[in-house]
Automatic annotation (TrEMBL):
It comes from Deinococcus radiophilus. This is Glycogen synthase. Pathway: Glycan biosynthesis; glycogen biosynthesis. ADP-alpha-D-glucose binds at R22. It catalyses: [(1->4)-alpha-D-glucosyl](n) + ADP-alpha-D-glucose = [(1->4)-alpha-D-glucosyl](n+1) + ADP + H(+). The keyword Transferase applies. It comes from the Bacteria. PANTHER family: ALPHA AMYLASE DOMAIN-CONTAINING PROTEIN, GRANULE-BOUND STARCH SYNTHASE 1, CHLOROPLASTIC/AMYLOPLASTIC. Keywords: Glycogen biosynthesis, Glycosyltransferase, Transferase. One of its GO terms (molecular function) is alpha-1,4-glucan glucosyltransferase (UDP-glucose donor) activity. Synthesizes alpha-1,4-glucan chains using ADP-glucose.
Length: 457
């Protein structure tokens, strides 16, 4: 197979890309942003690992098998979809079930060493390379060392890709100076996220508020000093994520009773009530990873009082202790819990619930609150990160302290507001009318890219 790629593309590199591979919001962003850029006329390529079994879910065609020095054989797969060229790199390290494993620093270091040589072998000269999260931090370093303009986006600072430096140094193929404090070294460890921060021309986060928060000790995950330096140098920016409005569209959603206003939503509420045997009390829903970041322990501690006024439906997996604790509420007629992922149920919750709980301790951007608003479900969120940037206080319900008491207070405020039907319906209508399309975000990235290229002369 002969592969023909566009000249001067923007190249995105990420560990997961919807609809090919997904564990969370990173994949959703990589499924939407490149497509928006391609629709705006920018040639766009996405590079991601070729995970085992991926060819079963997509029309990936094997282009050739390359040999990359220090990495070995790399299978190159390709699919073109929606104006975007997707390249899949198949390394032996990824030939196992699942996306992520305990040795991911080694796996993604080898992937990071392969991306630039593969693109060069294809004759690709990127207009700019855009890496996403720690998995691409080494790619950004190698791209910068090859003279390519780069942008690096932090989707979640908590995950950094750290490993003892004496061992990881053998995997990264970097010059000696790049292994020091001005490169990947961080307190005696290799830190692949720091690699992206240090080598990129510009660093972005996925919301303006999160960009401010991560320069503080509370949110900086130990890297606040590096991020403060980037901020002083004008290299740190916050660009709010958008939402895939085709995938999340209550008018055409195959998983729900389609609707465009309040009347149609009521049918989905009735169906959700019937599915779980709920009574006529309003429904509070959540779709979330069960993790400390997401504040799901706050929701758990608030349940005894919440069920006095709300039916509660929870979908999610993660922390086994939280899973067991939520499952333990299965006896209660006003609580429904399902562990793990269930795409269809997630859509039904967004469409059928009255309110959506997102009590995150920190939230780089978050997509769930935007989906909830689009489906006419008012968010109950903590005032942090992207939740501040996307949930107006005149529409949703917010609280400041990361406590179950603060959550309950906001839920009670919502309950009192719901008694005023006209006010509740105003909030729902205005929430559904908010514009979360990728257009504005794509324009912001285009301006940032232009700034990087201008700085390069």
């Amino acid at each position: 197979m002969t592969l023909s790629l566009p000249a001067g593309p923007t190249v995105h590199v990420a560990s997961e890309v919807f609809p090919f591979s997904r564990t969370g919001g990173l994949a959703d962003v990589l499924g939407a942003l490149p497509a928006a850029q391609a629709a705006a006329g920018q040639p766009t390529v996405v590079v991601t690992p070729w995970y085992q079994g991926l060819e079963d879910a997509a029309q990936v065609q094997l282009v050739e098998t390359l040999t990359v020095e220090g990495v070995g054989a790399v299978r190159l797969g390709h699919e073109r979809r929606g104006g975007v060229d997707y390249l899949f790199l198949g390394l032996a390290d990824f030939d196992r079930p699942g996306l992520y494993h305990a040795d991911d620093v080694r796996r993604f270091s080898r992937f990071g060493c392969a991306v630039v040589p593969v693109l060069q072998s294809l004759g690709v000269q990127p207009r700019l390379l855009h890496g996403h999260d720690w998995h691409s931090g080494l790619v950004v370093a190698h791209a910068q060392l090859s003279g390519w303009p780069t942008v690096f986006t932090v989707h979640n600072l908590q995950y950094q890709g750290r490993w003892p430096l004496y061992e990881a140094a053998e995997w990264m193929a970097l010059p000696g100076w790049a292994l020091g404090p001005d490169g990947v070294e961080f307190h005696g460890e290799a830190n692949l996220l720091k690699s992206g921060l240090m080598f990129a021309d510009r660093v972005t986060t996925v919301s303006p508020t999160y960009a401010q928060e991560i320069t503080t000790p509370e949110y900086g995950e130990g890297l606040e000093g590096v991020l403060q330096r980037l901020e002083r140098e004008g290299r740190l920016h916050g660009i709010l994520n958008g939402l895939d409005l085709e995938r999340w569209n209550p008018r055409r959603d195959a998983y729900v009773m389609n609707y465009s206003g309040l009347r149609g939503k009521s049918g989905n509420r009735r169906r959700l009530r019937a599915e779980f045997g709920f009574d006529r009390a309003p429904i509070l829903g959540t779709v979330s990873r069960l993790a400390d970041q997401k504040g799901m322990d706050l929701l758990l501690r608030a349940l005894p009082e919440l069920v006095g006024s709300w039916n509660v439906v929870i979908l999610g997996g993660g922390d086994p202790v939280l899973e067991a604790a939520f499952a333990g509420w299965g006896y209660h007629p006003r609580v429904a819990f399902k562990g793990g992922l269930d795409e269809a149920l997630a859509h039904r919750i967004y469409a059928g619930a009255d309110m959506f709980a997102m009590p995150s301790r920190f939230e780089p951007c978050g997509l769930s609150q935007m989906i909830a608003l689009r489906y006419g479900t008012l968010p109950l969120v903590r005032e942090t990160g992207g939740l501040v940037d996307t949930v107006p206080s005149s529409i949703g319900f917010t609280f400041g302290e990361a406590t179950s008491e603060a959550l309950l207070s906001s839920a009670n405020e919502a309950l009192a507001t719901r008694a005023d039907r006209a006010e509740w319906e105003r909030r729902v209508r205005e929430g559904m009318a908010l514009d979360f399309s990728w257009d504005a975000s794509a324009r912001a990235y285009a301006a940032l890219y232009a700034d990087v290229l201008a700085g390069r002369g």
